[in-house]
Specification:
The complex is a heterotrimer of chains A (393), B (357) and C (266). Chain A is mostly helical and 393 residues long. Chain A is 74% helix and 2% strand. Chain A: Belongs to the binding-protein-dependent transport system permease family. CysTW subfamily.
Amino acid sequence: MSETSLKGRLGALALVAPLVLFLAIFFAWPLVSMLKESVSDPVGSHAFPLTAAVAGDWDRQSEPPEALKQAFVDDLRAIDDQQLLGDAVRRLNSAQNGFRTLMSRTIRAVEEQPEGPLDLVAVDRRWADVRFWRAVADSTNPYTDRYLLAALDYERDASGRISALPAETSANTAILLRTLGIGAVVTLACALIGLPYAMLVASVDGWKRQVLLGAVLLPLWTSLLVRTAAWFILLQEQGLINDTLMSLGLIGSPLPLIFNRLGVVIAMTHVLLPFMVLPIYSVLLSIPRNLMPAAASLGAPPWRAFLRVLLPLSLRGVVSGSLLVFMTAIGYYITPALIGGAQDQMISSVIAFYAIGSANWGMAGALGAILLVATLALYTVYGRLSADRAGGR
Amino acid sequence: MPLSQSNIRFEKVSKAYGTLRVVDDLDLTIDEGEFLSLLGPSGSGKTTILMMLAGFEAPSGGTISVGSQRIDPLPPHRRNMGVVFQNYALFPHMSVAANVAFPLEMRGTPRLEIDSKVARALDMVQLGAMKDRRPAQLSGGQQQRVALARALVFEPSVVLMDEPLGALDKQLREQMQLDIRALHKRLGLTIVFVTHDQSEALTMSDRIAVFNRGKIEQIGTPREIYDQPRSRFVAQFIGETNLVEGTLAEAGDAGATVKLEGGGTIRVQPSDLRPEAGRILVSVRPERIRLGPDAASENAYPATVTDAVYHGDHLRIQLDNGAFGFVAKADRKTAEFNPGDRVMVSFAPSDCWMLPA
Amino acid sequence: MRAATLFKLLFGVLAVVFLIAPLVAILPLAFTSSVFLTYPIPGYSMRWFNELANANVWRMSIINSLIIGTGTTLLAGTLGTLAALGLRNAGLVLPGLFRTVFLLPMVVPAVVLGVGMQVFFVHLGLANSYAGVIAAHSVVAVPFVVVSVTASLAGIDRRVERAAASLGASPFTVFRRVTLPLALPGILSGAVFAFATSLDEVVLTLFVAGPNQRTLARQMFSSIRENISPAIAAAAFLFIVGTLLIAAIAVLVRRRTEKMKQPAEA
């Protein structure tokens, strides 16, 4: 390797390095910490360090060893962070019902006898039940899969087997399905409007093309919030759409357009339509102009030429556009949050609720991990497709 | 379509985009079975004429008919003419076989018949082995032949070709010229061939129509176009020529005499050209000029060699006789010429052609 | 044929109305004198613009947006431009990988990134700080800069730079006198994109900003959610007019650069 080319390589790396470093710290690391949150369960190991040290020696089935019981009592005596203790109790109670009363009784007993061995079964009969000890021992494991399982409506039962949650508590699959459903409907609506629109843009030229393209680009450049606010105004009960329909006498009372699924789909279709139109349009532009004349000269009437030549060739754009729209749609937060009702919230809203509303990072992280994986998978397919197109030319 | 009397007629056809007249009041008859080339520089209107014939452009005025039937109101897909497009216009998403089958499908040909016709058409262009490939996997020459097979498979009586060989390199182009010419002979097709390459037009055509600014400058056999150009434009566009200006001094059945601008006279072959005020151009092709130590003809002039360039198969010699300059082509083996040499330039009156100034 | 043309026209008009009407419909409401965001407008006034300028929450949020937007433009603009120059360098190993990584922030759902940043910024001590919000905004703004500058660099004819070098310019002079001026439109439009991205960012702001960093977009979001008022329309009016202005400038700049290039090609 010559000296100059080595210098060139180092120079190129030096130019790229600041952004790589920046993204590593402020983009990759946050994602990693989110993923870590989804599998971490630090409360038990922090609150009960002595128990954690001996929990590994117990097989979870037989009578818990005395050492474990003693370690647990010592941990309770040592703990002085009341907030940590509260968190630990909550953590235990979520794994096994009854811990709240059991723990308050036990903590009182520990306070009354600050030294020496303590017969816990005498304090409360429940300490004879191996399930409570199993919950204590399990809580000291700093890693857990229960958030990820819960995100898909599964749990581990007392014996550690994975089983589905009962239907009345299984909200997450419903939300995941709803997210996919809304994404699919929006994608379909975008394709149904976007394909003919892109064809129209490609079929005209001069000022007509400028106007049609401008109509797509202007919303794209406009703030997402502004567009959502605009739809809020149009769709509300005394909004322009209801007013117009009522003054035309088409309807007697306002249609429910906002805070429901219809409003979300309309507003999201508007927001995402440019992502469908632009890929299709660019594919249409790359189709040689003489193919349709060629089809006609070979005897194809216009509609058959359309079906056999133009439509199949533009399908690639439709697939790219659909992936782009679907991928963006399933991660949407603002539009459903502002236009949708409680029954129209998508996975992002639930993540935001866990993260901001209830500070449940584990659940937020687990649902976020699912959304992240789905999005990256779709993006990979999209990348393959566009690479194929670039290479095939 | 009646087969007997199916020549193509353009009558008073014009085409204008806004104020720009691309084709101006065109009258043209193309005989059945003829190979006609439309030759001209870009923008001369030749492609527009082809597009009007195929139905992709509507004439602004006039009529186009095949036999007794007017075709200008017909949409392209009902004209039944094979078209070979510039850059071929193959369908990128279909295999070679599907491309060739396309026109047959559009005509509702039964599947079995389609298969055999496609196979035959691909064999005709020697691409039987490539039938499952996509156009992008073929070379330029192969794509060209697929386009040809596709335009011929439905047995149209008229085939239109728009600069079909423009994208090929020289050797392949010459091979394809011979192939197309052979197909024309064998199938008895009427071919209308648009090109801007004059040598291509000369080698392939029965007749050539030379276009300039939307009008036909001259139409005739390749020999007529080359040997008897009727205008300065045609003389200069087809091949290379020496043009000298003069006045017609005397004309008779045996020949005419032209008095040259810079002094001297030229005897030229007889012509019925009688220009007003006697102003005239004389055209002499460089390869008809003889160079030697002595005068060998009626038209002989002393001249000085100013430059001699080696061209492989010939020498291109620049000459000056004081009054006018000449370009001559000489066999490279006959003699050596060097700048400054004094030679005699001569040419037969039968190689001198008069045209209007 | 007639019916098809008519259908095309109808579809085109309806689609354009669907795309544009919402943006147009919100504009007049910025000037309403009423406290409701509904038509018909009882009277016109500038009261909601006054509200934006004078009410504390709105004024603070506008100032915050300007501070954070400027910071994001500088940070993302610098990092993105440097990276785009590096990507253009033939000596870079694995350019495809770098390119993909630089575009990823555009792909990852904002809420997912937001959760991660919220957790991580607490560890870094960046939670509820201007620096944290600027860093977060820069992450999502930087792909736009990279794309924009890369595109304008790709448009530069390498022969022009070689010509400059052959005429005696040192590599740095070539960069300063030839490459940089030619790439400038791309850098500027990347900067505009970065600013606009920051201005419009809500989700990350929700997760990482404290009450003191409440931006205009964030304020609009909670205002629509909690107590919607025509102040929203007034803010939207400013956004839309700003967009149109920037678009007009972009078109003008492109016209000028195209004119600059034309004689060379003719």
